[in-house]
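Changelog-linked ticket: MU-OXO-diiron example.
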Amino acid sequence: MRSQEIGPNLYWVGYVDWNVRNFHGYQTHRGSTYNAYLIVDEKVALIDAVKGHYTKHLLKNIAERIDPTRIDYVISNHTEPDHSGGIAEVLKHAPKAQVIASDKGRSGLEKYYGSNWNCRVVKTGDTLSLGRETLQFIMTPMLHWPDSMFTYLPGRKLLFSMDAFGQHFATSARYDTEVDFDVLMAEAKTYYANIIMHLGSVVSRTLKQAETLAIETVCPSHGVIWTRHIPDIIAAYKDWAVCKPRNKVLVVYDSMWQSTEIMAGAIADGAAEENVEVELLRLDVNGLTALATETLDAGAVALGSPTLNNQMMPNVAAFLTYIKGLKPKNKLSLAFGSYGWSGGAVELAAEELKQAGFEPAMENIACQYRPDTAIFDQCRQAGKILAQKVKQFVQTTERTTP
Ligand code: FEO
C-alpha cells in the first residue's frame, strides 16, 4: 500500500503484509500490518520501522512524502524485529538521524544489530521538540517487551501505542471506522489473547497511565488506527486484563478412536443444558491461536486427552505448553479422557492445568476403552455441574475483580 496522510504533516508509511499466515506461531489468518508513521515538522521523525524484509516498501513510502535524508529522528518504540528490522537500512538513507529509544531499547537494538548508532535514551516524561510539535515518551516495560514505550503527541491528542491495541489485520483501510466493527474487535481479541494475555497486570497499570492523557487517536503498530472506537477497545482491554470470565464452557480435546470425543460431546451437551455458551473444539482441526482466543473469556475449560504411550496426546501437551505461557486468570477446569490399559494422560493434563493457573472444578473423569452408559451419563452430568459452577464463578469474579 502507498503512504497515506492521516493528519496534517503526519503520514502512514508502513507495510501491509497480506499473506503472512504464521507470525512466530500465531496463525494470522487475516495477515498483518507493520505500521510506521512519519511526522514532518521543522524536524522529521519516523515512528518505528517495519520487518527488515519489507524496508524497501517503507523507504518508498517515505520518499513519496520527503527525501529520506531529511529524517532527524527514528523513534524505536519497541525492539522486536517486526518494528526495528528496517531501522539499519533506514539509517543508511538518513545519515543524520538519531535513534530514540528506552534504555532497554538501546541495549536491545545493539544486541540485535550490533549497532553503533547515534542513540538517545529517553524515559517517562522526557520530551522531544520537532518544532511546532513536541513528542512525549511514556515507558511501558513488558508491554510487550522490557524495552517498550509509547510516544504521545499532546498537540494532537494522539498516542503511538506500539503493540498495545494492535491487531494482526491486513486491510487497505487505515481507520477503525472503515472496517467491520465485529471483525476488528475479533482480531483485537485474538491479538490480545495470543500476544498480551500473560501481561494483564502490566496492561491494567498502563491503562491507568493512559487515562491521565487526553487521547482522540491511537496509532498502534499493527492493524487499523483507533478513533471512534477508542472507548470500546479500552473497555475490552480492561476486561481482558483480568481474563474476565463469561458464562462460557470451552471443551477442548483430541481423540484417537472417538472415545474421548464421545466424552467431550457429552460434557458439552450437559453444559448446554444450563444455557451457557458452549464451544466444542477439537485440537487437531483448531489451531492454538483460536483456542487461546476462546480461552481468554471462558469461565471454564474442559480438556480431554486419550492416553498415548502413557502420555497425553501431543496436541494436548502443545496446547498446555502454549496456554501455560499465556497465564490465563479466572478459569475453572475439568480434565477427562480415555485410556487403553495403564492410563496417565488425564492426571497429567489435570496437573498441567493446575500449574497453568486453572482452578479444578471437580474430579477428573477417566474411561477405559469405550464410554459406557454410566460414563456417558457421568460426563453429561459433569458438563451440567461445570456450567452451574461457571455461572456462580462469573458472579463471584464480577464482585471481586476491580
Ligand atoms: Fe509487533 Fe512485540 O512486536
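Closing comment: Example verified and attached. DSSP finds twelve helices and 22 strands in the chain. The pocket of MU-OXO-diiron is lined by residues 78, 80, 82-83, 144-145, 163, 221-222 (CB under 6 Å).
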